[in-house]
Amino acid sequence: MKTQLKSVFLSLACFLSIALFLAAPAAAGKDKVYKLRMQVLFGPDMMWQYQPFIDFCKKASNGRLIIQPFSGGQLVPDDQMMAACGMGTIDIAGGAGGYWSNSIPLAATEGVLPFALRTINDVNTFYYQRGYLELCRKAYAEHGVYYLGPQMVDFAYLMANTPVKTIDDLKKLKLRAVPNIGKVLGKLGVSAQYFPAGEVYLMISSGQLDGVIYGGSVAAESMSFQEVAPYYMTPSFNPANQNLIMSLKKFNSLPEDLQAILEMATQVENMFLQTVNWNLEFAKRRSMMEKNGLKVVEMDKELIDAMAEKAREFYKDVASQGPYAKEAVQMLEEYMKEVGYLK
Questions:
Q1: Are 170 and 306 in contact (CB under 8 A)?
Q2: Higher confidence at residue 114 or residue 93?
Q3: pTM across the whole model
């Protein structure tokens, strides 16, 4: 399945590469090879998901743009990747805004506000048609970082060692969650803190945690969470939207054709991640149900409504943290009203 999907995206990459070369003017230093180091959040067994980005950059640049990938934590701690890009310690990062929203308040709105953007189409439309991408670039540039674009990798689901249907069920648990979701759940009286994903399995198995809000079934299986948290709650809290960012100084130092290739490669990678993870979501669920006795549980509407209400309170908190964050929340609420998520 991976091979078939990869072939489709590599064919697209080749087609777009030809188009880029036909349209691009000759650039000075056109034979120079640029080698860029990239760290992403995924562990080693998930690095294949970023191969389309790497391959596109190499093929479209005729070998002038070489991306050297590193898995989560290999070069710097995951929550420091944005700062590392700003300092030039690493060139490119596949991260998530929620990890550094204390430094860039707008980053809290990057598709990780609970019960805001809810579908793949929401993410793409909001970024590429509503001006949100340009707003992200302005905010990140102040930290020496160029925002290449979104990476809609997955959806964020709750997994726990006990079923969760009601508010009371949820309040009994100690959970791991990224800061945004943790703050929303905190407004409901739920204990939810951030811990590195690699520590969560042991923390659940030892009783320090009861569950985790991490990703979809593909991400969950890669961490073996189904072995210690065999209840899988639906619907998802939000699209687990990540990003590709890079050193602004490094980006500006590249020839214009390579800058264009990086931006196009980001969109190719975004589409690949969206389709491959959605394609595998239900197959992986079935696999975990058969092998590990995973049980899918639908949360009550009362619980979902309560979390959505607290999420809207959190939007106001985010909007108060700076002009970019305020503008982002206003844009987000306008979009949500148009599509019927808010009244």
A1: no
A2: 93
A3: 0.79
